[in-house]
């Protein structure tokens, strides 16, 4: 991490009686980028070494939930939602249960109006080739979602990045109005602002190569910088002259005096931690939002449903009415293997949606909207109706076209196995998405894991023929395909008899139990319902692993980032308040 020298002191209005002293005070952080804002907002990784003092109103204190907000540079939004839906769902997640839903809706609508989005409330955000909001409108939606709690301190990371001058000025002027209205301090990092946007700021912190070139009033910045250097010099030398000039300037001395003065006063805490929605409410809201997102995503929902129906018709026509002949034994086994393996592996097609969900979760988690537990529960519950639908329709097509073992109980079991296998594949892909946030790499990794599990599931090589090392122990018992195959085999062959007319010796009929025991090498010591229970247990286990991976990645990311930075730089340090002892 680059060395940074910046004083965490931002001057408020002197006319404001409130002890917080954060009244519409704008500070421009030039060439600061995300790391500086992370340091100021307390979002640096726990493994990052930070020296100096972090003072708010002259005292060391944490920024409690609801008193500050952070708008990231990238607009990470659920693209299938409308503006009104996105902001209202965010309000339900952030605002406390004690606030009635009517008030939450009014807060969301008022915030939308304040950011000038009232004409786009029913417009979908858009993305993935779907036309929606413009870049400036998306930025305003991002700001809306963080303004719902009416924070005292708002951090903006490159709020005008990627926007034209008109959109940039519109956004910043709206924020100025809100800051004056709500008594809010805004701290923004910005790159090459237009003169109109620059004039909106009150104070300026100008950095170069992590060193403070100027910190003070925007109006005095040009004069001070011009006095610091009056002839053409190489860039590094010019920066050094500017830094030294500022250190010896009256502006720097005045800032140091004001810092010391504030530190001697007792201005109180910036605000107590505000309550937010309960865990149960967050789970319900996330379930509803996730289900709506799935339903509106043509690639995740409707296209996959069409593909599953087409595969069901394909299986039904290839294995149409297999009958009770001896040759149908192999046909039934092959068809059941295809259902449990290749039909369920299609669930990896939802991986791009999982990656987008993870990005939205990461942003909202960092801003304190909800935790990993609520996200996992909401995502799990929202997928149940969809998985049931895409399991039921292909199951009905396959079961009756092929002519499998008749009976309502057997059909329900067949459908449940297909449902739970799809849930397992989706759970596995969510674990991969938490580790590999890249579409191509994630799809390759997921398909590779599925391929290894299929090889050891007990169809391509019988269980007794599998190599003991790795393939039998432990992969055969870890792979869900083992329990899916054996459950479907038991469901199909128990109680059936097949013509054995092609055999010159032995009985004229062969019973299903013999096929299960001798041909397919199925473990007969327990019923098919135990296999199904194991599969459901594996779904729970995979979801818990997903939750654990999220928490582990949260702690591991700063470590990995520090290791990468360490390999690039001999020293790493973030210095806050260089004027302190």
Automatic annotation (TrEMBL):
SUPFAM superfamilies: P-loop containing nucleoside triphosphate hydrolases. PROSITE patterns: ABC_TRANSPORTER_1, ABC_TRANSPORTER_2. GO terms for molecular function: ABC-type transporter activity; ATP binding; ATP hydrolysis activity. InterPro entries: ABC2_TM, ABC_transporter-like_ATP-bd, ABC_transporter-like_CS, P-loop_NTPase, Plant_ABCG. Keywords: Membrane, Transmembrane, Transmembrane helix, Transport. It is a multi-pass membrane protein. Its main location: membrane. The keyword Aminoacyl-tRNA synthetase does not apply. Residues 1-234 form the ABC transporter domain. GO terms for cellular component: membrane. It is found in: Membrane. The chain crosses the membrane at residues 301-323, 335-355, 384-404, 411-433, 439-460, 529-550. It holds the Pfam family ABC2_membrane. Belongs to the ABC transporter superfamily. ABCG family. Eye pigment precursor importer (TC 3.A.1.204) subfamily. This is White-brown complex-like protein. It comes from Actinidia rufa. The lineage of its organism: Eukaryota, Viridiplantae, Streptophyta, Embryophyta, Tracheophyta.
């Amino acid at each position: 991490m680059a060395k940074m020298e910046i004083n965490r002191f931002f001057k408020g209005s002197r006319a404001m009686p409130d002890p917080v002293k954060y009244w519409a005070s704008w500070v421009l952080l030039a060439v600061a980028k995300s790391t500086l804002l992370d340091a100021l907002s307390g979002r640096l990784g726990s493994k990052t070494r930070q020296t100096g003092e972090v003072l708010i109103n002259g005292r060391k204190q944490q920024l409690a939930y609801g008193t500050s907000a952070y708008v990231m540079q990238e607009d990470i939004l659920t693209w299938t939602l409308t503006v009104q839906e996105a902001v209202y769902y965010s309000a339900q997640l952030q605002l406390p249960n004690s606030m009635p839903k009517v008030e939450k809706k009014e807060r969301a609508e008022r915030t939308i109006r304040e950011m000038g989005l009232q004409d786009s409330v029913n417009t979908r955000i858009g993305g993935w080739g779907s036309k929606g909001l413009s870049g400036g409108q998306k930025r305003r939606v991002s700001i809306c979602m963080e303004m719902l709690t009416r924070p005292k301190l708002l951090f903006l990371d490159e709020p005008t990045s990627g926007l034209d001058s008109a959109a940039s000025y519109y956004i910043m002027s709206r924020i100025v109005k809100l800051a004056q209205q709500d008594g809010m301090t805004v701290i923004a990092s910005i790159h090459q602002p237009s003169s109109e946007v620059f004039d909106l700021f009150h104070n300026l912190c100008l950095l170069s190569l992590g060193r403070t070139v100027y910190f003070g009033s925007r109006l005095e910045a040009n004069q001070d910088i011009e006095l610091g250097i009056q002839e053409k010099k190489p860039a590094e030398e010019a920066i050094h002259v500017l830094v030294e000039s500022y250190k010896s300037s009256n502006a720097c001395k005045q800032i140091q005096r004001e810092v010391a003065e504030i530190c001697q006063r007792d201005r109180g805490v910036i605000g107590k931690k505000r309550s937010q929605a309960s865990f149960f409410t967050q789970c319900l809201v996330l379930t509803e939002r996730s289900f709506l997102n799935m339903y509106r995503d043509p690639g995740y929902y409707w296209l996959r449903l069409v593909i599953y129906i087409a595969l069901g018709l394909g299986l039904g026509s290839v294995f149409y009415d297999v009958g009770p002949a001896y040759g149908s034994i192999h046909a039934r086994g092959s068809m059941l293997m295809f259902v449990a393996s290749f039909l369920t592996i299609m669930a990896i097609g939802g991986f791009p949606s999982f990656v987008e969900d993870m990005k939205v979760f990461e942003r909202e988690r960092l801003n304190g909207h909800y935790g990993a537990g609520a996200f996992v529960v909401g995502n799990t519950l929202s997928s149940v109706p969809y998985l049931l639908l895409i399991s039921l329709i292909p199951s009905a097509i396959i079961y009756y076209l092929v002519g499998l073992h008749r009976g309502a109980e057997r059909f329900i079991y067949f459908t449940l196995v297909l449902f739970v296998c799809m849930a397992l594949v989706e759970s596995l892909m969510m674990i991969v998405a938490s580790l590999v946030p890249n579409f191509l790499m994630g799809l390759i990794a997921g398909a590779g894991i599925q391929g290894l599990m299929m090889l050891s599931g007990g169809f391509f090589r019988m269980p007794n023929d599998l190599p003991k090392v790795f393939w039998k122990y432990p992969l055969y018992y870890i792979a869900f395909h083992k329990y899916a195959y054996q459950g479907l085999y038991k469901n199909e062959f128990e109680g059936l008899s097949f013509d054995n007319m092609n055999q010159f010796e032995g009985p004229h009929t062969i019973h299903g139990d013999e096929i299960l025991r001798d041909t397919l090498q199925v473990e007969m010591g327990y019923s098919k319902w135990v296999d199904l229970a194991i599969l459901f247990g594996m779904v729970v286990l995979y979801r818990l692993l997903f939750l654990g991976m999220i928490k582990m990645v949260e702690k591991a990311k700063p470590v990995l980032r520090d290791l990468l930075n360490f390999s690039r730089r001999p020293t790493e340090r973030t210095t806050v308040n260089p004027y302190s002892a």
